[in-house]
Amino acid sequence: MRKIKAWAKKIKQQIFVLYLAYKDERVLLYAKIFSICVVAYAFSPIDLIPDFIPILGYLDDVIIVPLGIMFALKMIPNEVISECEDKAKEIMKNGKPKNWVVGSFIILAWSIIMLWIILKAYQIFR
């Protein structure tokens, strides 16, 4: 159980690393875009596979998010990662930051996507 808790804490820290790296001007644009998508997905309350589906519901949390983090970290320069890791450790010590603007943006983005899917499905099945 300790290994799982340590792994989860490491994942959270890496998400903060990606968030901080996104703001760094040394990170290339494609890496910034991919990183912010991974962070948005990790913080998003909406998953590709809903959590209420037995076993499969948690696969995205266990597989998709860590894979996204791994690929994003490969795109970012090592010196940026090491600086952001130090900042992320400090953030984790002081408690998680709350950014209601970003949270609202994520919910708005997912709502627009879901509305678009519903409208397309309605057009197809009408």
Automatic annotation (TrEMBL):
Chain ranges of the DUF1232 domain: 32-67
Major localization listed first in the record, in broad terms: membrane
Alphabetized UniProt keyword annotations: Membrane, Transmembrane, Transmembrane helix
Matching InterPro entries: DUF1232
Localization, UniProt: Endomembrane system
Presence of keyword Transmembrane helix: yes
Record's bilayer topology term: Multi-pass membrane protein
Protein origin, superkingdom: Bacteria
Stretches that traverse the bilayer: 27-46, 99-119
Record-given protein name: DUF1232 domain-containing protein
